[in-house]
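I'll show a record.
***
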Amino acid sequence: MRLISPLLFWCLLDYGASGVDTVKVSVMEGESVTLHTHVETDQQDRIRWYFSDIRIAQISGDLSKICTDVQCNEGTERFRDRLKLDHQTGSLTIMNARTTDSGVYKVQMNNGIITFSVNVTGAFGVNRVEVSVKEGKSVTLHTGVKTNQEDRFRWYFNDTRITQITKDLSKICTDVQSPERFRDRLKLDHQTGSLTIMNITTTDSGIYKVQMNNGIITFSVNVTAVTDSGLSTAVISAGVVGAAVLLFCWLQLLV
């Protein structure tokens, strides 16, 4: 097969994109979306996916070469562990979609190019709950739902899935992708899906999200460090400042 120059490739890419309609796709944050090729891989020599002109996935007709995100481009962290490539059709699924995933996706095949304009919107009615807790304590992030109201709960920490539970309890797991961070410190309520973090540490501070049928709840968790005296650093700082002010006032009285 004769190779074409990069310049000619992008000319063909732009020409092909202008010759077809752009497929508009909308999805809510946290959900999955599939961009369909409507072809069979054995009909194609190679299928390549691009996001903002950066290759993010590739599959050959004989399946000898398959790659996604960082496997295709070293250092491409945007979609780590969130892309799924259909080996039969080359269709691309984006899991746990983020608002930053919005943009133009192109799939290059033998018979042309399909362009997708993907818009990821923030989940309607998303609540943001601010939570503060001292280091070493336990904290529970409540879903606010009753027993068996939801088919599935999925918890994420900084966009990495850490727990999951299904309605029929057929699948329950914790520390899915980050076993070392929360090892043996997560407890999932089988009735409500609420999540308890035990013996919490300052490195547990961050954004937690629970994905349910009726939407997403976001928790901003702030863990304050505790000194040997049992006081948080914020309390000690306030005490030091207060003592300094009192000392200054006392010295002024002596003058």
Notes: Residues 50 and 106 are 5 Å apart (CA to CA). The chain is about 15% helix and 40% strand.
